[in-house]
Amino acid sequence: MKRENVELDGQAMDKVFRYWVDRLCLSGWHIVWSFYTEAPSMESVDSPQGETVADYKNRTATIKILPMAMWTEKDVPHDMEQVMVHELLHVVFDPVWSSMDNGSIQQDMFHAKIDEIAWFLVDSRRCRKAKMPKSR
Question: In angstroms, how far is the first alpha carbon of the chain from the final one?
Fold first, then answer.
């Protein structure tokens, strides 16, 4: 599928969040998400689109998502549902992610795979929705 910007407001993001928490079997977690209120510095986060801090032992996580209005890299699509899924996958894989050295080639490769899996999941959902017959 073609990659393009997908902007969602807070209410739509809540719906996307609840759907993916359920699909990724994270219902037993206490996860809070929010939009960034100011753009993060590139030095403070791995990805300019979102950030996750997870505590696997206590099953808690905090996710921040960059709103479309703050997205400045116009040549790179900012699909807010894909970003949410990407950040939730960080929660799923936190024990593996946390065991890697920050900035290591393993962590960079793992991060790229998380991104690919997030795109696959979102694209698959959208393809299924597009093929569903319209109800009358």
Answer: 28
* Length of the chain as a residue count: 136
Report the C-alpha gap between 66 and 94 in whole angstroms: 21
pLDDT 10s digits, 23-35: 999 999 999 999 9
DSSP character at residue 33: E
Q: For residues 47 and 107, which has the higher predicted lDDT (pLDDT)? A: 107
CB 52 within 8 A of CB 61: yes
DSSP 43-80: TT-S-SSEEEEEETTTTEEEEEE--GGG---TTS--BH
pTM of the model: 0.86
13 in Cβ contact with 65 (< 8 Å)? yes
Round to whole Å and give the CA distance between 130 and 123. 10
- At 87, give phi and psi (nearest 5°): -65, -40
